[in-house]
Amino acid sequence: MKAWLDGRVLESPNVPAVGVLDHGLIVGDGVFETVAVDHGEPFALTRHLERIVRSAEGLGIGTPDVDLLRHGVAATIDGQELGFGRVRITVTSGAGPLGSPRGGGPLTHVVVTEPCDRPPAVSSIITVPWPRNERGALAGLKTTSYAENAKMVEVAKAADASEAVMPNTVGDLCEGTGSNIMYVLDGQLVTPTLASGCLAGITRALALEWLSQELDVVERDAPIEVLREADEVVLVGTTRNIQAIGRVDDRTLAAPGPVTSAAQEIWARRQAEHSDP
Ligand SMILES: Cc1ncc(COP(=O)(O)O)c(C=O)c1O
User: Fold this and answer.
1) How far away, in angstroms, is 271 Cα from ligand 1 center?
2) Which of 180, 198, 242, when mutated, tests ligand 1's pocket best, judged by the most ligand atoms within 8 Å of its CB?
3) Contacts (Cβ under 8 Å, ≥6 apart) of 60
4) Hey, which of 115, 128, 148, 149 would disulfide with 85, CB 3.0 to 4.6 Å?
5) The whole model's pTM is what?
């Protein structure tokens, strides 16, 4: 693991580095990205940097220094054996007071890169009752205020699942804590619309673009109970790519099903063509 903060590589990721008054620590006032790295090459880095700028501006903390972040990404990948890994980019609103108002100081830019296991081909999910607020102030932004996601993942792990999938405030299927969701009904691959409150996932966007050239793919909202009748269920996200789901709550599904297999084949083929699509 290698860490970088505001322009310099840290001696170790465990040395104290960010101030105790950083508003990211105090109230989760920041934004982040997780980028996959394969054989030392970050995937879709430009899209991730564009999204972190959108998230930061949407949160109102200003504009991250994208060139600085690119240096941080390169500096933390450099010198590491990264067959597969992930880069975590975090930008916070910087030092602030102990309450919610901001300090107005410079943003804190952090990059940490570590090797990790490739995602398993098949996984399990649970559905949880806690809604994503599609009308909230943070809707659609990838902020560091992820404590509710941390709680939901712990609940999923306790149920032997790797992800918790939630509804939105009107009970429609929304997303997982760190992934978007797709499912197959009558041979058609369906994913919730962005109006559901889900994050505009980069894997989701690329999957819609790439898969729709060869498969029947639509964006459509439906009650979360649709997962009880779906023929196949798939999670899509940076750390999962296109992952088949073999169990939803107590229901077992054959995984990967035929549409999922086709989607995985298309994804692998298209991903191999571009490292920064
Ligand atoms: C809440 C949420 N939804 C969806 C995703 C999937 O997005 P991406 O494909 O860009 O990784 C993430 C990923 O981090 C996420 O945090």
Assistant:
1) 17
2) 180
3) none
4) 115
5) 0.97
Atom of ligand 1 nearest to the CA of 177: 1
Spatial strand order of the sheet with 8-9 comes to: 8-9, 2-5, 108-115, 84-92, 30-38, 41-42
Over residues 170-186, the mean pLDDT reads: 98
Query: And the tokens for 19?
Result: 């101030």
Which protein residue's CA is at the shortest distance from atom 13 of ligand 1?
Answer: 178
Contact 204, 212 (CB under 8 A): no
Is 96 a pocket residue for ligand 1 (Cβ < 6 Å)? no
Burial class (CB in 10 A: 0-12, 13-18, 19+), 16: exposed
Name the band, by pLDDT with cuts 50, 70 and 90, for residue 121: very high
- Amino acid (one-letter) located at 271: Q
Helix ranges, 36-65 (H): 45-59
Nearest to residue 64, comparing CAs of 91, 37, 96? 91
CA distance 18 to 245: 38
**CB–CB of 27/100 below 8 Å?**
yes
105 pLDDT band (50/70/90 cuts)?
confident
Pocket probe for ligand 1: among 182, 238, 267, 271, the residue whose CB has the most ligand atoms within 8 Å is: 238
Does residue 168 have its Cβ closer than 6 Å to ligand 1?
no
Does residue 34 line the site of ligand 1, with CB under 6 A? Answer: yes
